[in-house]
Specification:
- The protein is α+β, with helices and mostly antiparallel strands and 128 residues long.
- Strand 1, helix 4 and strand 2 form a beta-alpha-beta unit.
């Protein structure tokens, strides 16, 4: 499984007997040149709508860790880069974004606590 691409993907071909055992999810162009299958996800609005419907029906659960307004994108990235805590970090594109149920933030380390204000750019839940 290649997740680097470039020269590393090229070198992989020399290391295996059967190049069909190699997969990449990074470098589609070199993979096509070398005849290596790719694992590039095929995303579509139809797939997203299907996932949203499953969520709405309660068939899948989503643990939301923190919500950030678009203006708080830098703070969201800093939170992700700490690699601490569980759950998804969600960036809200507009203030009229639909409510997203959030789980408690109690399982998050205190050093990663959310201040719930515009200055910090972090909100642990959406106001109704």
């Amino acid at each position: 499984m290649d997740n680097i691409g470039g020269d590393t993907l090229r070198a992989s071909v020399d290391l295996v007997k059967d190049k069909n055992r190699i997969r990449t999810m990074i470098d589609d162009e070199i993979a096509a040149e070398l005849g290596i299958p790719t694992l590039t996800p095929k995303r579509s609005s139809e797939q997203l709508e299907g996932v949203v419907e499953l969520y709405a029906q309660g068939k899948i659960k989503l643990h939301v860790r923190q919500l950030y307004p678009l203006a708080g994108a830098a703070a969201a990235h800093r939170t992700i880069e700490t690699r601490h805590g569980r759950g998804k970090i969600i960036l809200l594109i507009s203030s009229s974004a639909p409510a997203v149920p959030t789980s408690t933030v109690a399982d998050r380390p205190a050093s990663n606590a959310c201040a719930n204000d515009a200055a910090s750019g972090c909100f642990s839940s959406l106001a109704p």
